[in-house]
Amino acid sequence: MRLSMIRFDTVRVAGAPKFGAELPALTGLLGTVAPTDRPRSVLITHLLDTAIAYVEAVHSVFPVARVVAIPYSASSSAVQTLRAKGFNVILPASIPDTFVQSETQVIEVLKEASTPLIVQEVGGYLAHASARLAAFQHFLGVVEDTNNGHWLYESTGPHPIPVLSMAQSPLKAVEDSIIGDAVLFSIERILREEFAAICQGLRSAVIGFGKIGRSTAVALKGRESVVSIYDINPAKDMSAKVEGFFPRPLHDLLPESELVVGCTGQTSIRLTDMPFIKDGAILASATSKAVEFALTDFERECSVEKFSDLIWRFTQPSGKRFYVLLQGTPVNFRDGSILGTILDMIYCELFLCMRELAAKRAPIGLSKSPPPIQDEVGKAWLRSHSDDFSRALGDKIWDYPESLKLGLPKP
Fold it and tell me: Where are the alpha helices (DSSP H) in 196-233?
């Protein structure tokens, strides 16, 4: 399948980029949506300051009826700025409330008018609502961004609506490969400011050796931390071994680890694991929501001191203590998470997935972002962020994947 690059018009986001969030690649793709394929939209998203330009860009093509801000990643300045611009921004009280508000707000918008509607979300907040949403014929579907959300849609399927996921796209893997640096930046800042500690020489455990776990382990190793790995998948442990990280059984690893970073997107440290946590250890999450640690179970069994939203201290019946950062939510969102040109890439793929839904090209049920979208994003990104490629208009990259045939053996 070959996606059209025809520009139907030229669309520009008014005003200068906000908070340094320049999105030239995305801006260059806004005009690829046909005037007849422009439904309204609802965004359920991380609302950091860097997201303001994205919301405005989407709104210029798919009018944004609601923005539901994920509470643990909502910047008060971003919320205020968008509200001042006239956007209807909903700020749920908690993660469970985000599930409730997401469905409530989308259904309200669907009832307000019969204009077609698409949703772009991060975390599977509509996974349990797909049958109810399907009752509205003008609901065109959902674009999902994260693995956590992809897995939730997978486990709650089949779905009677299109759910187009970019969570396992090769471009998403590029983002995941640098999340470790963002995670470490936030952890190291907290260590220095709150614990008067440093990463150098710290014995660290990375739980989960997928794309985010690998990038986190590499980042920690780069700061001279002593890094060990645990993954429930034996193949991942073998991979960690040959990449220079020592895999250990979980209950051998926890008693030795001063820092534990959960990178699984699921619950990596459960109540049965809690007695093995080292006295004084610090637990941080690198994945969506607050699922990495069984905090509800921990609170039931421990006394808890909530010094701030940043640091909670749990004291076990044995007297051993451990700390949880940022209430178990992704620690990297404290400092903006992913910044720079990679953010432009992610927003481009989300936008093109929305374009697929708007044009009714996505199948019913859960599906993955198709390769032609990734090719289009890659070319748009290189045009905007690489002077060398933007000048080399005759390069074979612009004809990819057709140019692959040039290297095939002659018949």
Answer: 211-222
Q: What interhelical angle do 170-195 and 211-222 show, nearest 10? A: 40
- Of the candidates 274, 386, 377, 364, the one whose C-alpha atom is nearest the C-alpha of residue 321 is 274
Top CATH class of 24-168+339-400 equals alpha beta
Instruction: Give me the residue spans of the domains in the chain.
Output: 24-168+339-400, 177-335
Q: Is the model more confident about 289 or about 185?
A: 185
Task: Decide if 143 contacts 120 (C-beta within 8 A).
Answer: yes
Domains 24-168+339-400 and 177-335 share a fold: yes
Grouping H, G, I as helix, E, B as strand and the rest as coil, residue 268 is coil
Q: Which residues contact 387 (CB under 8 A, 6 or more apart)?
A: none
Q: What angle do CA 250, 253, 257 make, to 5 degrees?
A: 135
Report the percentage of the chain scoring pLDDT > 90: 84
Q: Cα(240)–Cα(409) distance, rounded to whole angstroms?
A: 37
**What would the CATH number be for the domain defined by 177-335?**
3.40.50.720
Contact between 87 and 115 (Cβ < 8 Å): no
User: Two tokens at 322?
Assistant: 């451990």
- The model's pTM: 0.85
Mean residue pLDDT of the chain comes to: 92
Provide the pLDDT for residue 409.
Answer: 65
